[in-house]
């Protein structure tokens, strides 16, 4: 059996008295697409941000390729170059063109020459279908285009894993599709991805594993089939029914007759 | 006694006025420059999480912002000798006081610029593996200084005008030259008005130049940039 690329053991994180993560354990294997779903405030984003220390965990272990990144001797910058993040609000560098957004870290972190970095940036832009926007500034791009550049920026670093923190939540509905298409292409190409999302269609179609988080713990996890068609935890059922009522109608990934199992008598919200 | 206004003394004393103008330009330019670099350093201390660094820089800023520039000039030129530190040239003493003072103000301008940048910009840089300093110098500072150009313009103009205070320790800059010419000739109105016009030429040029810089480095697609 292959080794997990990320293994989380009993991860805990609090902000003051607010215990956001109450002991999370999970594994991510190479080339896997893991989606994390759950209501706002369930700790999904915090979990993702702990993985590359944008938030410092309070306890537990995060093994990245077998090494505990909470260990003092680990160079977190080296870990981050192999585990990039795509943010909800894109976070492109506003003063740099699309091409230079991608080239910057290649030059500063990977120590590439300018020409090589820009060539690599152009290749990455091509992969997300934006080579014609290479010289555009983020402010001149639509949200969907900005997020595709952000994905290209992560891809160009040639990471082992890309973390996605609600990558489509800040987008207008008509722009979500283009970003999901890029992510699907990336998943198909074998990239290991951990995706916090409200896009159930994406989770159902692309995920190898779906994790449902509720109140700081993993309430349920399994294949999309397990989780969406046959959820065991009553809270999963409640969550799925609610979110599908909100987005299901316009989410092409969800069949119109799809109803999560459970008759709803004893699990009212 | 009423004295008729005689404008002809202006051309007569033009070389003297220009010598004063030159000194004023020199003092303001150097102290603005030192203040700019010093302001970035102190501003960075003011956003530091190290309580000692933050504390010392805060005391510095409050002290120089909260006391009269004139007192600061006197302290450098007249006070330091009592501690055994002699600054022979009043020009150098004036430069030191103005630079220290401007650095305090400019550090706050810089800090404001930095705080206008969303934390997501640093997070994005860090999540790509950049160090804190790389993120600061390549992502935060270039944007922070752009955003802070209007208050920087204010400060530069203020410095040009406040540089006149060093006349009190005998630096022969524009105001002191003007005052001497006016005392010699008795033509206060033409002389002082002309001095004012020369100051205005300096400040107005500064404002136009910085406006040009603002436009030149405006980020396309952001508020304030020319929409194409």
Order of helices and strands of chain A: EEEHEEHEHHHEHEHEEHH
Report the end-to-end length of chain B measured between terminal Cα atoms.
63 Å
Low-confidence stretches of chain A: 261-269
Quaternary structure of the protein:
heterodimer
pLDDT below 50 for ≥5 consecutive residues: which ranges of chain B? none
Number of strands of chain B: 0
Please work out how many helical segments of chain A DSSP would assign.
9
How many strands, what sense, and barrel or not for the largest sheet of chain A? 6 strands, mixed
Shape of chain B: flat
Global mean pLDDT of chain A: 89
* Fraction of residues in H or I helices of chain B: over 70%
Order of helices and strands of chain B: HHHHHHHHH
Over all CA atoms, what is the radius of gyration of chain A? 19 Å
- Please report which band the strand proportion of chain B falls in: under 5%, 5-15%, 15-25%, 25-35%, 35-45% or over 45%: under 5%
Structural class of chain A: alpha/beta
Based on CA inertia axes, which overall geometry of chain A fits? globular
State the end-to-end CA separation of chain A. 40 Å
Class based on secondary structure composition and strand pairing of chain B: mainly alpha
Rounded average pLDDT of chain B: 94
Strand element count of chain A:
10
């Amino acid at each position: 059996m292959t080794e997990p690329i990320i293994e989380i053991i009993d991860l805990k994180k609090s902000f003051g008295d607010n215990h956001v993560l109450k002991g999370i354990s999970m594994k991510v294997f190479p080339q896997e697409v893991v989606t994390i779903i759950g209501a706002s405030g369930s700790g999904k984003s915090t979990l993702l941000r702990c993985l590359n220390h944008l938030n410092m965990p309070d306890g537990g272990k995060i093994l990245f390729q077998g090494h505990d990144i909470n260990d003092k001797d680990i160079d977190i910058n080296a870990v981050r170059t192999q585990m990039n993040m795509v943010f909800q609000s894109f976070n492109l560098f506003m003063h740099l063109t699309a091409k230079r957004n991608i080239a910057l870290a290649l030059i500063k972190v990977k120590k590439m020459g300018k020409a090589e970095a820009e060539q690599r940036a152009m290749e990455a832009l091509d992969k997300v279908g934006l080579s014609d926007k290479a010289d555009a500034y983020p402010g001149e791009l639509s949200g969907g285009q900005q997020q595709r550049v952000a994905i290209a920026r992560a891809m160009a670093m040639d990471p082992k894993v890309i973390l996605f923190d609600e990558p489509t939540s800040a987008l207008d509905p008509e722009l979500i599709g283009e970003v999901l298409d890029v992510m699907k292409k990336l998943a198909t190409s074998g990239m290991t991805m951990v995706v916090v999302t409200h896009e159930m269609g994406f989770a159902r179609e692309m995920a190898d594993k779906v994790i449902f988080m509720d109140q700081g713990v993993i309430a349920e996890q399994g294949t999309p089939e397990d989780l969406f068609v046959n959820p065991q935890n009553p809270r999963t059922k409640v969550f799925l029914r609610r979110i599908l009522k909100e987005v299901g109608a316009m989410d092409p990934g969800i069949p119109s007759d799809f109803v999560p199992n459970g008759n709803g008598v004893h699990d009212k919200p | 006694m009423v004295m008729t206004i005689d404008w002809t003394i202006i051309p007569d004393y033009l070389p003297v006025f220009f010598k004063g103008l030159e000194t004023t330009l020199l003092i303001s330019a150097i102290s603005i420059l030192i203040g700019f670099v010093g302001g970035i350093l102190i501003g960075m201390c003011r956003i530091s999480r190290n309580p000692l660094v933050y504390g010392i820089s805060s005391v510095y800023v409050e002290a120089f912002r909260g006391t009269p520039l004139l007192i600061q000039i006197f302290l450098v030129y007249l006070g330091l000798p009592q501690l055994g530190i002699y600054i022979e040239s009043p020009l150098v003493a004036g430069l030191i006081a103005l630079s220290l003072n401007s650095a305090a103000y400019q550090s706050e301008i810089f800090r404001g610029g930095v705080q206008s940048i969303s934390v997501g910009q640093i997070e994005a840089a860090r999540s790509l593996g950049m160090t804190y300093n790389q993120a600061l110098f390549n992502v935060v500072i270039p944007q922070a200084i752009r955003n802070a150009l209007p208050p920087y313009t204010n400060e530069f103009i203020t410095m040009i005008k406040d540089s006149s205070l060093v006349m009190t320790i005998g630096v022969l800059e524009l105001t002191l030259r003007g005052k001497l010419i006016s005392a010699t000739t008795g033509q206060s109105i033409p002389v002082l008005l002309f001095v004012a016009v020369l100051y205005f030429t300096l400040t107005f040029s500064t404002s136009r130049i910085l406006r040009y810089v603002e436009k030149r480095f405006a980020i396309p697609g952001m508020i304030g940039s020319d929409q194409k």
